[in-house]
Amino acid sequence: MMKNISTMKIKIIVGSTRQNRFSEKPARWIYEKTKNTDDVETELLDLRDYPMPFFDEPVSPTMNKNGYPNETVKAWAQRIGEADGYIVVTPEYNHGYPAVLKNAMDYVYKEWNNKPIGFVSYGSVGGARSIEQLRQVAVELQMAPIRSAIHIPSFWMMLDAKGNLKEKAFDSLEGGAKKFLEQLLWWARALKNARNAIST
Asked: Which has the least CB within 10 A, 158, 161, 168, 198?
Protein backbone atom coordinates (compact mmCIF):
# COMPACT_ATOMS: atom_id res chain seq x y z
CA MET A 1 0.00 0.00 0.00
CA MET A 2 1.29 3.46 -0.90
CA LYS A 3 2.44 5.54 2.05
CA ASN A 4 0.57 8.76 2.73
CA ILE A 5 2.87 11.69 1.95
CA SER A 6 1.82 13.20 5.27
CA THR A 7 3.18 10.21 7.20
CA MET A 8 5.34 11.27 10.12
CA LYS A 9 8.49 9.26 10.78
CA ILE A 10 9.06 8.94 14.52
CA LYS A 11 12.15 7.30 16.00
CA ILE A 12 11.96 5.90 19.52
CA ILE A 13 15.36 5.76 21.18
CA VAL A 14 16.09 3.29 23.97
CA GLY A 15 18.42 5.43 26.06
CA SER A 16 20.00 2.78 28.30
CA THR A 17 22.33 -0.09 27.46
CA ARG A 18 22.80 -1.59 30.92
CA GLN A 19 22.08 -5.22 31.72
CA ASN A 20 18.57 -6.06 32.93
CA ARG A 21 17.43 -2.57 31.94
CA PHE A 22 13.81 -1.55 32.41
CA SER A 23 13.83 0.95 29.54
CA GLU A 24 12.98 -1.52 26.80
CA LYS A 25 9.61 -2.17 28.49
CA PRO A 26 8.27 1.40 28.27
CA ALA A 27 10.02 1.75 24.91
CA ARG A 28 8.07 -1.21 23.53
CA TRP A 29 4.85 0.15 25.07
CA ILE A 30 5.18 3.64 23.56
CA TYR A 31 6.33 2.08 20.28
CA GLU A 32 3.08 0.11 20.04
CA LYS A 33 1.07 3.23 20.89
CA THR A 34 2.90 5.22 18.23
CA LYS A 35 2.76 2.48 15.61
CA ASN A 36 -1.02 2.28 15.96
CA THR A 37 -1.46 6.02 15.43
CA ASP A 38 -2.75 7.12 12.02
CA ASP A 39 -0.19 8.42 9.51
CA VAL A 40 2.81 7.48 11.62
CA GLU A 41 5.75 5.29 10.68
CA THR A 42 7.87 4.42 13.69
CA GLU A 43 11.08 2.57 14.48
CA LEU A 44 12.81 1.54 17.70
CA LEU A 45 16.47 2.56 17.87
CA ASP A 46 18.37 0.64 20.53
CA LEU A 47 21.70 2.18 21.52
CA ARG A 48 23.02 -1.33 22.03
CA ASP A 49 22.92 -1.63 18.23
CA TYR A 50 25.01 1.54 17.80
CA PRO A 51 28.13 1.04 19.99
CA MET A 52 29.75 4.40 19.29
CA PRO A 53 33.01 5.29 21.02
CA PHE A 54 32.97 8.18 23.45
CA PHE A 55 33.05 11.33 21.36
CA ASP A 56 36.64 12.09 20.41
CA GLU A 57 36.41 13.67 16.97
CA PRO A 58 38.75 16.60 16.24
CA VAL A 59 35.88 18.73 14.88
CA SER A 60 32.50 19.42 16.45
CA PRO A 61 29.54 18.01 14.48
CA THR A 62 28.28 21.61 14.18
CA MET A 63 31.36 22.38 12.05
CA ASN A 64 31.74 19.04 10.32
CA LYS A 65 31.65 19.45 6.53
CA ASN A 66 33.09 16.06 5.56
CA GLY A 67 30.61 13.60 7.06
CA TYR A 68 31.16 11.12 9.86
CA PRO A 69 34.29 8.93 9.58
CA ASN A 70 33.07 6.23 11.99
CA GLU A 71 30.81 3.67 10.28
CA THR A 72 28.59 3.16 13.32
CA VAL A 73 28.12 6.91 13.64
CA LYS A 74 27.25 7.09 9.93
CA ALA A 75 24.53 4.48 10.43
CA TRP A 76 23.25 6.33 13.50
CA ALA A 77 23.24 9.66 11.67
CA GLN A 78 21.27 8.17 8.80
CA ARG A 79 18.58 6.86 11.14
CA ILE A 80 18.38 10.16 13.00
CA GLY A 81 18.28 12.14 9.77
CA GLU A 82 15.31 10.15 8.46
CA ALA A 83 13.06 11.17 11.33
CA ASP A 84 10.45 13.90 11.66
CA GLY A 85 10.47 13.58 15.44
CA TYR A 86 11.85 11.59 18.34
CA ILE A 87 10.81 9.92 21.57
CA VAL A 88 13.61 9.19 24.03
CA VAL A 89 13.09 6.62 26.76
CA THR A 90 15.57 7.22 29.56
CA PRO A 91 16.24 6.33 33.19
CA GLU A 92 17.41 8.85 35.75
CA TYR A 93 20.84 8.15 37.21
CA ASN A 94 22.08 10.37 40.06
CA HIS A 95 19.78 13.25 39.09
CA GLY A 96 20.76 12.94 35.42
CA TYR A 97 20.60 10.86 32.27
CA PRO A 98 22.92 8.07 31.02
CA ALA A 99 26.28 8.98 29.52
CA VAL A 100 25.64 6.65 26.57
CA LEU A 101 22.56 8.70 25.64
CA LYS A 102 24.40 12.02 25.83
CA ASN A 103 27.17 10.56 23.68
CA ALA A 104 24.67 9.48 21.03
CA MET A 105 23.12 12.94 20.99
CA ASP A 106 26.49 14.69 20.81
CA TYR A 107 27.81 12.68 17.88
CA VAL A 108 25.49 14.17 15.26
CA TYR A 109 24.07 17.65 14.82
CA LYS A 110 22.25 18.78 11.69
CA GLU A 111 20.25 15.54 11.63
CA TRP A 112 18.49 16.64 14.85
CA ASN A 113 17.81 20.22 13.81
CA ASN A 114 14.30 21.69 13.66
CA LYS A 115 12.48 18.57 14.83
CA PRO A 116 10.46 17.86 17.98
CA ILE A 117 11.49 15.54 20.75
CA GLY A 118 9.54 14.10 23.68
CA PHE A 119 10.70 12.10 26.68
CA VAL A 120 9.59 9.04 28.61
CA SER A 121 11.50 8.60 31.86
CA TYR A 122 11.58 6.58 35.03
CA GLY A 123 13.47 6.63 38.30
CA SER A 124 13.40 9.04 41.24
CA VAL A 125 10.52 11.52 40.94
CA GLY A 126 9.54 9.78 37.71
CA GLY A 127 12.76 10.75 35.97
CA ALA A 128 11.78 14.44 36.01
CA ARG A 129 15.33 15.74 36.55
CA SER A 130 16.66 13.62 33.70
CA ILE A 131 14.04 15.08 31.37
CA GLU A 132 14.68 18.68 32.43
CA GLN A 133 18.38 18.30 31.67
CA LEU A 134 17.71 16.60 28.35
CA ARG A 135 15.44 19.45 27.30
CA GLN A 136 18.43 21.81 27.62
CA VAL A 137 20.53 19.50 25.45
CA ALA A 138 17.73 19.31 22.87
CA VAL A 139 17.48 23.11 22.63
CA GLU A 140 21.23 23.36 21.96
CA LEU A 141 20.80 20.80 19.16
CA GLN A 142 18.10 23.07 17.67
CA MET A 143 15.29 20.70 18.52
CA ALA A 144 11.88 21.59 19.93
CA PRO A 145 11.33 19.67 23.19
CA ILE A 146 7.61 19.34 23.81
CA ARG A 147 5.99 20.28 27.11
CA SER A 148 4.32 16.92 27.72
CA ALA A 149 6.37 14.03 29.06
CA ILE A 150 5.64 10.60 30.46
CA HIS A 151 6.96 10.12 33.99
CA ILE A 152 6.97 6.58 35.37
CA PRO A 153 7.13 6.56 39.19
CA SER A 154 8.13 3.50 41.22
CA PHE A 155 8.73 1.49 38.07
CA TRP A 156 9.85 -1.54 40.09
CA MET A 157 6.25 -1.92 41.25
CA MET A 158 5.35 -2.73 37.64
CA LEU A 159 7.40 -5.92 37.76
CA ASP A 160 6.62 -9.31 39.23
CA ALA A 161 9.04 -11.39 41.32
CA LYS A 162 10.77 -12.65 38.15
CA GLY A 163 11.25 -9.19 36.71
CA ASN A 164 8.49 -9.53 34.14
CA LEU A 165 6.07 -6.73 33.42
CA LYS A 166 2.77 -7.12 35.24
CA GLU A 167 -0.46 -7.22 33.24
CA LYS A 168 -1.88 -3.74 32.61
CA ALA A 169 1.23 -2.17 34.11
CA PHE A 170 0.99 0.91 31.91
CA ASP A 171 -2.78 1.39 32.06
CA SER A 172 -2.57 4.42 34.36
CA LEU A 173 -0.35 6.18 31.79
CA GLU A 174 -2.65 5.70 28.80
CA GLY A 175 -4.34 9.12 29.03
CA GLY A 176 -1.05 10.95 29.35
CA ALA A 177 0.44 8.98 26.45
CA LYS A 178 -2.42 10.04 24.17
CA LYS A 179 -1.86 13.73 24.92
CA PHE A 180 1.90 13.27 24.64
CA LEU A 181 1.65 11.77 21.15
CA GLU A 182 -0.86 14.37 19.99
CA GLN A 183 1.54 17.14 20.99
CA LEU A 184 4.59 15.47 19.48
CA LEU A 185 2.82 14.88 16.16
CA TRP A 186 1.44 18.42 16.04
CA TRP A 187 4.98 19.75 16.28
CA ALA A 188 6.32 17.12 13.88
CA ARG A 189 3.84 18.20 11.19
CA ALA A 190 4.35 21.91 11.80
CA LEU A 191 8.13 21.69 11.68
CA LYS A 192 8.15 19.36 8.68
CA ASN A 193 6.02 21.86 6.78
CA ALA A 194 8.39 24.64 7.81
CA ARG A 195 11.47 22.66 6.72
CA ASN A 196 9.84 21.85 3.39
CA ALA A 197 8.90 25.51 2.84
CA ILE A 198 12.46 26.64 3.47
CA SER A 199 13.98 23.97 1.20
CA THR A 200 11.76 24.81 -1.81
From this structure: 161
